[in-house]
Specification:
Mean pLDDT: 80
Shape: elongated
Structural class: alpha+beta
Strand order of the largest sheet: 5-7-6-15-14-13
Helix content: 10-25%
Number of strands: 17
Strand content: 25-35%
Number of helices: 6
Length: 459
């Protein structure tokens, strides 16, 4: 018994030692778990930054018009393979996106940018970014150094023109453009924007050009294209313009509108009952989607459809067009005259946007080469011809959407048409185009907010 008692006394404290050893092991595993989780979080943030950089770079392909006409801009201006610091548009957009998506509280660095122009209609860009010097909270106890993570993402500006995928576009403005230079498409410049046979955007020089879209009424006949000296002389860079045409249409009610207290938006919701032409200019209609092959006119299937205007007094449409555009582009003038605080859109390729004094984000006032403007909108294009050929009756109006143009609206000018009336002509710069394949029965792809061309991650 004495011997057993002595043995027990010799084992006193062993439990504390075992607990201490176990605690060290548990703490080591916990420390490792904390550091590993931190690295996983950083890796996730790095991938998010890479995705944002690739998408931002691909957006520049769409905004420049390159996907519609690859000859209008040099590849070196648009995207340059290599590291960061290049002044090309896509490189700068990628760097800006990375700087806005922090990794563990700091800006990651762009390792490589790879530009793929092998398919001009679907250019791609791949961005690899890395974040070094990641702190380890407990690993330094065992001498572990700072960690690093990297991620790669690829994106493309996908132009479905002439392909097997339909285009579906929301927030389209109610101006129906004929695919020709003659408002009746009786032989002058038809087809023009798109090749009717396959939906491919023509390789003409309309991308980056200033245009005046003159309003055409189904009940007034086809006027002769106006001579340049018949319009008020606009300031540079729009002194020389090409003339096109548009029919005003009436889509369903818009669902996302600015405040009636916003600059020159006081005419919102004041139109005649069930006439939403003005509001669809000033507002965004995300609830209603246009699509390839869609019939514009009454009786078309699939729910409420736009109705081609006919029989409305010319003064009504002129006033409502001016008011809607003034609200949309933030013009000080209620008639949406040029040079009244809206963003300035320069012609050429790529199109250069300078922030106007009235833009909602005041920090961009006067800033050159911004990438977003409320003045940049999408409009539908139809095959051409008089959409109301029979007795100028609304019941006979019909047109089929064959593509979409992206235009940067600069303002509205009024042109006398006789009898004390005038029409509202829209001055804009064409920035992109996406056409429909007539044999296309595939699922729709939604376009971006500023362009009918979708920008998507592919890896």
């Amino acid at each position: 018994m004495t011997q057993i008692s002595r043995k027990r006394k010799g084992e006193r404290g062993i439990t504390i030692l075992l607990v201490a050893v176990a605690m060290i092991s548990i703490l080591a595993m916990a420390a490792l778990a904390v550091d590993v989780v931190a690295l996983y979080v950083a890796r996730s943030e790095t991938q998010r930054a890479a995705d944002a950089a690739a998408l931002a770079a691909a957006k520049m392909f769409a905004f420049s018009g390159y996907t519609s006409n690859s000859s209008i801009i040099t590849q070196g201006q648009l995207c340059v393979s290599g590291g960061s610091g290049n002044s090309a548009a896509s490189n700068q957009a990628a760097q800006s996106a990375v700087s806005q998506n922090l990794v563990s509280g700091q800006v990651a660095s762009i390792q490589t940018i790879t530009c793929d122009f092998s398919q001009a209609e679907n250019p791609r860009v791949t961005v690899t970014i890395q974040r070094t010097g990641l702190p380890t909270f407990f690993g330094r106890i065992w001498g572990a150094g700072a960690g690093s993570v990297s991620a790669t993402a690829s994106a493309e500006a996908f132009n479905p023109s002439g392909g097997s995928v339909n285009i579906a576009v929301g927030s389209v403005k109610p101006w129906l453009i004929p695919n020709c230079l003659d408002p009746t498409c009786s032989g002058l410049g038809e087809p023009y924007f798109f090749t009717s046979a396959n939906g491919i955007a023509n390789s003409g020089s309309f991308i980056g050009q200033a245009w005046t879209f003159a309003r055409q009424d189904a009940n007034t006949g086809a006027p002769t294209p106006p001579a340049p000296n018949s319009l008020p002389t606009p300031p540079p860079p729009t002194a020389s313009m090409t003339y096109g045409w548009y029919y005003a249409i009436d889509p369903p009610e818009a669902n996302v509108c600015p405040s009636t207290g916003a600059l020159n938006c006081n005419q919102l919701f004041t139109g005649p009952p069930n006439i939403y032409y003005h509001d669809n200019i000033a507002c965004s209609n995300t609830a209603f989607q246009y699509s390839c092959g869609q019939q514009i006119g009454p009786g078309s299937p699939g729910g409420p459809q736009p109705v081609v205007f006919d029989g409305r007094p010319a003064g009504f449409l002129t006033n409502r067009t001016q008011a809607g555009v003034a609200c949309m582009i933030h013009s000080t003038s209620g008639t949406a005259d040029l040079g009244n605080g809206q963003d300035v859109i320069a012609t050429g390729t790529p199109v250069v946007i300078t922030g106007g004094t009235n833009r909602p984000n005041a920090s961009l006032n006067g800033v050159v080469n911004i990438s977003r403007s409320d003045s940049v909108v999408t409009v539908p294009v139809y095959a051409g011809g008089d959409p109301c050929p029979s007795n100028n009756s609304v019941s006979t109006c019909s047109a089929i959407v064959i593509g979409f143009l992206q235009i940067a609206v600069q303002g509205v000018v009024t042109v006398p048409i006789g009898g004390g009336l005038s029409r509202a002509d829209i001055q804009a710069v064409i920035t992109n185009a996406a056409g429909c394949n007539p044999a296309n029965n595939g699922p729709a792809v939604a376009g971006g907010a500023l362009s009918p061309l979708p920008v998507r991650l592919i890896r």
